[in-house]
């Protein structure tokens, strides 16, 4: 079996990374396009952001199927068919959701020993397995590590973990692209 | 002088360690130091300059001349600097953090001018800038 291509796309805020990632799949010969959204609409601004992305996909020349998965990427696996093009948007949101899972019941994942390692392992494994069925998988994330280390321990932990995840994603990817103001820079 | 730079947690130290391999080098993690040592002869790696400057300085000229003194005392051909890019985030609320960003930015411009080789690291991948 031929494994589908994995592409990692990262960029700053409003750098056009999602549009670029969508374009990669829309220009491909994938039979069906699946958008895996990790964002949860927590406030009106977030709702608007999500609806803007939704409209972009509706206006697109190809049809997109949207699946909302704040954390559980392995759960997407059963919904993917051979020949699909899958876009996961985005890892920064996924990490925040994963770190604070369990917050309501008094114990966030990042406070429980081993919880984050397990979640990250499952997520990376799901990406590889997605590519075993789908023709192409594109993972979108953000550039947020070019600033002084935060004074808040949880933010430091978030930054350190995000860096580690990005390095692992780059390693398993066939292509890795950094977006700057709409211009893709191919690192791999 | 060879500069490796990139965002935090991008794998810069790991990359330099792999590159040096078995080669003998003096590795200086400046983050916990109160004073930069006098560099030895031969290969010297300086990392963690940003937190060193943050902890020990608050006047730009003094911070810059402290680092430049170190750089000028080292063997230029075998000096390696690992620099974390801290200049692309939101402007910090804290005045000392703003000072640090500005100082590092201007210091980096001077260091980059002196460097024979510059490599940018992005999540473990390297790009030769010069």
UniProtKB/TrEMBL annotation, chain A:
Q: Please give a single GO biological process term from the UniProt record.
A: cobalamin biosynthetic process
UniProt: GTP binding residues: 37-39, 54-57, 68, 89
One Gene Ontology term of the molecular function aspect? adenosylcobinamide kinase activity
Q: In which pathway does it act?
A: Cofactor biosynthesis; adenosylcobalamin biosynthesis; adenosylcobalamin from cob(II)yrinate a,c-diamide: step 5/7; Cofactor biosynthesis; adenosylcobalamin biosynthesis; adenosylcobalamin from cob(II)yrinate a,c-diamide: step 6/7
Superkingdom assignment:
Bacteria
Q: Which family does it belong to?
A: Belongs to the CobU/CobP family.
Question: What's this protein's name?
Answer: Adenosylcobinamide kinase
TrEMBL record, chain B:
Give one GO molecular function term.
Answer: nucleotidyltransferase activity
The alphabetical list of record keywords is: Kinase, Nucleotidyltransferase, Transferase
Keyword tRNA-binding applies: no
Q: Which Gene3D superfamilies match?
A: P-loop containing nucleotide triphosphate hydrolases (3.40.50.300)
Indicate whether Transferase appears among the record's keywords. Answer: yes
Which InterPro entries does this chain map to?
CobU/CobP (IPR003203), P-loop_NTPase (IPR027417)
Its name, as the record gives it, is: Adenosylcobinamide kinase /adenosylcobinamide-phosphate guanylyltransferase
């Amino acid at each position: 079996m031929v494994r589908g291509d994995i592409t990692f796309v990262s960029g700053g805020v409003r750098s056009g990374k999602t549009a670029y990632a969508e374009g990669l799949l829309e220009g491909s010969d994938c039979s069906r396009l699946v958008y895996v959204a990790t964002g949860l609409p927590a406030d009106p601004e977030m709702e608007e952001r999500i609806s803007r992305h939704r409209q972009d996909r509706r206006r697109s020349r190809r049809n997109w199927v949207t699946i909302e998965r704040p954390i559980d990427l392995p759960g997407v696996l059963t919904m993917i068919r051979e020949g699909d093009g899958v876009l996961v948007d985005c890892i920064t949101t996924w990490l925040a959701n994963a770190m604070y899972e369990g917050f309501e019941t008094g114990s966030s994942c990042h406070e429980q020993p081993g919880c984050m390692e397990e979640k990250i392992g499952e997520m990376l494994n799901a990406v590889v397995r997605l590519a075993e069925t789908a023709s192409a998988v594109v993972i979108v994330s953000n550039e947020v590590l070019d600033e002084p280390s935060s004074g808040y321990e949880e933010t430091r932990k978030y930054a350190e973990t995000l860096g580690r995840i990005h390095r692992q994603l780059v390693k398993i990817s066939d292509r890795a692209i950094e977006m700057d103001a709409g211009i893709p820079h191919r690192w791999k | 002088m060879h500069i490796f730079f990139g965002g935090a947690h991008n794998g810069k130290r790991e990359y330099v360690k792999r590159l040096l391999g078995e080669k003998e080098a003096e590795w200086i993690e400046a983050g916990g130091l109160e004073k930069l040592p006098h560099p030895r002869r031969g290969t010297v790696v300086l990392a963690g300059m940003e937190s060193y400057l943050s902890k020990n300085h608050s006047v730009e000229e003094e911070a810059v001349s402290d680092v430049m003194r170190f750089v000028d005392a080292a063997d230029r051909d075998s000096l390696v600097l690992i620099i974390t890019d801290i200049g692309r985030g939101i402007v910090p609320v804290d005045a000392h953090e703003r000072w640090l960003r500005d100082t590092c930015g201007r210091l980096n411009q001077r260091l980059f001018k002196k460097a024979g080789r510059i490599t940018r690291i992005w999540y473990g991948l390297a790009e030769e800038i010069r």
